Amino acid sequence: EPEVTQTPSHQVTQMGQEVILRCVPISNHLYFYWYRQILGQKVEFLVSFYNNEISEKSEIFDDQFSVERPDGSNFTLKIRSTKLEDSAMYFCASSVEDKVTEAFFGQGTRLTVV
Amino acid sequence: GIQVEQSPPDLILQEGANSTLRCNFSDSVNNLQWFHQNPWGQLINLFYIPSGTKQNGRLSATTVATERYSLLYISSSQTTDSGVYFCAVLSGGTSYGKLTFGQGTILTVHP
Q: How far is residue B105's CA from residue B40's CA, in Å, rounded to a whole number?
């Protein structure tokens, strides 16, 4: 069964460093998303991406965040200068369409900023 | 934006018991999904159910969109069912697939 894959599964980084979280969405999907879950809290939407551009972003997704689809398969989330409060589980998701189809989530990347 | 409330917040069961988890939402939805977050943090898709009833083994779900709620039924619970169950909805007025998650129900199943 096709699945969304994320790498790495766990990343530890020093405050102020740049991190790139990587995702390979399901191959025939056109819409891509990043979500974040701070420990013990609910999952929050960060950004959606379609046709090589951001289609919607939340207030969390400020200038230190960026997304990119560098080739035909990968979808990345970059955090330019990490802060302690960026420590969270980051989920990538993809769907065929944006509204009336199921979104499939990757297994997550646990980011720890020290 | 749309509000999603899940109940109960915590649920403790003995193995073999049945349970019902509820998700209420404040507006019409195009999409509703149930997820199980396992102890490793992974989100497992359980159901895509914007309306109607579906069953998958010991789990089933029903969404009554006109009354703005969904129910997840777990029968004959097992210890491996433990974890957090999330409901997530896509508002009818929202574009670009943004899912809004509830706070989750923490399920603990004891042997």
A: 16
